Amino acid sequence: MRAPAPGVRSQRVDNFLIYVYKKGNKKQVQDGREENHVFNARFSYKIRYNAKSLSAFLKFLSFLLLFAACFAPGAAWGATEPVNIETVKPNESGTGWDFGNTSDDVLTVSDGADIIVTGEVENGRRIVVAEGATASITLNGVSISLTEKNLSPLLLNAGAKLTLTLANGTENTLTAGGDGEGIRANGQGPLTTLTIEGQGSLRTTGTAIMAFGCTVTIDGGTVTADGAGRAIVANVSSEVTINGGTVTANGDYGTAIAAYESKVTINNGGTVTANGDYARAIRADGASEVTIDGGAVTADGGNGVAIIAGATSKVTISSGTVTADGGDGTAILAIGTSKVTISGGMFTAVGENGVAIWASGTSKDT
Questions:
Q1: CA 365, 348, 261 angle in degrees (round to 5)?
Q2: Which candidate, 57, 93, 207, 317, has a CA 20 to 30 Å from the CA of 111?
Q3: Do the strands 263-267 and 289-300 form a parallel or antiparallel pair, or are they unpaired?
C-alpha cells in the first residue's frame, strides 16, 4: 500500500480476488489438419473494499436473511397450532398441549400453548387449562356439549392466564349439563385471568362464564346465555371488565352479569343486554361495586331492570346509557342499603309504567 499524500487521512483498503473458471474450445491447424482443443481459463476480478463498507454490507445481508426467515411460508413467527377436538387421537400432543395423557376425554392446555381449536363433540371431550399456565386458544367454529355430564366444556385451573379469541364470523357453542357452566374459571389461590377478544360469538344455554376469585376481561366478540341463563357470574372477589363486545342474556328471568361480592366495570365500547320479561342486565349483590364509565346497559322486556343494586352494593355512573325498554321496566333499582352515585350519563325507561330510577329500603341515590 502506498503512503498517503500529505494532508490526506490514511484509510486502510483491502483487496480480495474472485476467480471465475471457464471451459471452452479452440481451433488449431497443425500439419494441414484442423483440430479442436478443450481448454480451461481462469479469470480473476479484484474487489477493493474498506472496513466501513464491508460492515455495512454484512448488516444489510443479515437483515435480508432475517426478513426471509420471518416471512417465509411455514415460518414460526406468530404461528398457531391447529387442534381438531373431534378427530384428535389419544396420546397425541403438540407445543403446550396434549390429549388423553391424563384422561381420554381431556385436551390439556399447558404453559406456552397457542392453538386454534375446531370440531364438534357431544358428551365426551372437553378442554382444561393447566394450573399456572399462560396460554392462547382460538375457537374457530367449535361446539362442545356436555349435557349429560355436570362438567364445563372449558375449565381454567387456579393461576391460569388464558387469552380466548373468538375467530371472526364464527359461532362457538359451549354447553354444560346440570349446574355446569360453559366456561369455569377457578381462582382459589393464584389469580386466574380470562381475556376474551375477537369478532366471533360464544353461546351457551345456562351460565356462559362462572368466575371464582378471577379477573375476566371482555375486549371483543359476543358472549350470550340463552334460556333464562346468566352470561357472566362473578363470585368471591372477582373482577369483570367490559371494554368492548357484547354480553347478552336471552330469556325470561335471565341475567347478563351477576356480581356477588365482586367488581364490575363497563367502559366505553362495551354493551350489556338482557332480553326477556323480568330480565336483568346487571345485578349487584353483597358488597359488590359496579362502575359505568361509558357503553350501554339495557333491559329489553316487560318488568326488566337494567341495573339492580342490592344489599350493600355500590353503583357509580359517570357516562354511558342505562335503558329499560318494556312495560313496567326500571332503568336503575336500588334496594337494601345500596348506594347509587350518578355524575353523568343518560337514563331511560320506555313503557307505560316505566321508571328511570327507583330507590327503596334505606338505599341512597346521589
A1: 50
A2: 207
A3: parallel
Spatial distance between the Cα atoms of 12 and 49, rounded to a whole number of angstroms: 9
Residue 70 is inside which H or E element, if any? helix 51-71
**Contact of 357 with 347, CB cutoff 8 Å:** yes
Query: What global pTM score does this model have?
Result: 0.78
220-242 pLDDT per residue, tens: 999 999 988 899 999 989 999 99
Q: Which three cell numbers stand for residue 114?
A: 397457542
Pairing of strands 126-129, 97-99: unpaired
CA 156 distance to own-chain centroid:
14
Angstrom distance (rounded) from CA 305 to CA 294 = 18
CA 81/CA 68 separation, integer angstroms:
21
Q: Is 74 helix (H, G, I), strand (E, B) or coil?
A: coil
Q: What is the pLDDT of residue 19?
A: 43
The predicted structure's pLDDT at residue 360 = 83
Mean predicted confidence (pLDDT) in 283-310: 96
Q: How many CA atoms lie within 13 A of 338 on its CB side?
A: 28
Cβ neighbours of residue 38 under 8 Å, at least 6 residues apart?
23, 24, 25
Contacts of 290 (CB under 8 A, 6+ apart): 259, 263, 264, 265, 266, 282, 284, 307, 309, 313, 314, 315, 316
Cβ–Cβ < 8 Å for 158, 185: no
d(CA 318, CA 292): 6
Q: How far apart are CA 300 and CA 223, in angstroms?
A: 17
- Give the three-state DSSP class for 59: helix
DSSP string computed for 129-171: EPTT-EEEEEESS-EEEETTSS--SEEE-TT-EEEEEE-TT-E
CB 283 within 8 A of CB 253: no
Which H or E run includes 51?
Answer: helix 51-71
C-alpha cell at position 312: 350493600
Is 80 exceeded by the pLDDT of residue 64? no
